[in-house]
Amino acid sequence: MITFEHVSKQFEDGTLAVDDMNFSIEKGEFFVLIGPSGCGKTTSLKMMNRLIPLTEGTIFVDGKRISDYDINELRWNMGYVLQQIALFPHMTIEENISVVPELKQWSKGDIQSRVTELLQMVGLHPETYRYRYPHELSGGEQQRVGVIRALAADPDVILMDEPFSALDPISREKLQDDLIELRNQINKTIIFVTHDIEEAMKLGDRICLMQEGQMVQLGTPHELLTDPANDFVRQFVGGPE
Ligand code: ADP
């Protein structure tokens, strides 16, 4: 579904944020990018939907180079959820969720029923919540809306950048459970950035552990725990010494 071939990113100031990354993400996979702050996770994620241009290498989505896509086609097919709740404050919840479906020129009726379906999916009563504004929701509820907004127009891929890290531990755990549940219902390809190993172990089919712009190990949670590639991995996953 998504392939990195010798992908590097050097910023204008010389920082080599991503250094020759090579991996493939399968369709339907829950793929976690993890590593210490500054190791290049967000940069890797943002290169996938061309928010950041690459300096070397190629990224393929569905076998096609991302540079060959029309930018809207690429982005509309990749829902994006941010750490900081990024709902439009002056729009109702319904309007927030409707942005991409409207760009795609869905009919009003289709959009309305999609909003109902999505709110129900995450346990927010549609007839109450669709008319509310973001400030009338708790942090956890807003983040839930952030997740379903990314799903609204039924993209194949969802990019999530530390979506739960601003939440209190209880809301966070609840949203992780919701995401597992949601994921079983929708079976999307999800690329999830976090620095929290417990979160990665709980959610990921496979985990890509990065250090200083490079991939250190790629494997299932079980493989990282039982067969760490080196001491860095061992310490990071906190497995047996
Ligand atoms: P992570 O998401 O793992 O915390 P990032 O991908 O955000 O890491 O950043 C990787 C490295 O690139 C860091 O050293 C960061 O300071 C640097 N970096 C990120 N964005 C820029 C930028 N726009 N210009 C220069 N350096 C940047």
Automatic annotation (TrEMBL):
Keywords (alphabetical) are: ATP-binding, CBS domain, Cell inner membrane, Cell membrane, Membrane, Nucleotide-binding, Repeat, Transport
**Per its record, what are the GO molecular function terms?**
ATP binding
User: Where would I find the ABC transporter domain in this sequence?
Assistant: 2-237
**Topological category with respect to the lipid bilayer:** Peripheral membrane protein
Spell out the subcellular localization from the entry.
Cell inner membrane
Q: Does the keyword Cell inner membrane apply?
A: yes
* Coiled coil among keywords: no
> What is this enzyme's EC?
7.6.2.9
Reactions accelerated catalytically: a quaternary ammonium(out) + ATP + H2O = a quaternary ammonium(in) + ADP + phosphate + H(+)
Would you say which domain of life the source belongs to? Bacteria
Q: Which family does it belong to?
A: Belongs to the ABC transporter superfamily.
Quaternary form? The complex is probably composed of two ATP-binding proteins, two transmembrane proteins and a solute-binding protein.
What's the protein name? Quaternary amine transport ATP-binding protein
Please give the organism. Alkalibacillus salilacus
Q: What is the lineage of its organism?
A: Bacteria, Bacillati, Bacillota, Bacilli, Bacillales
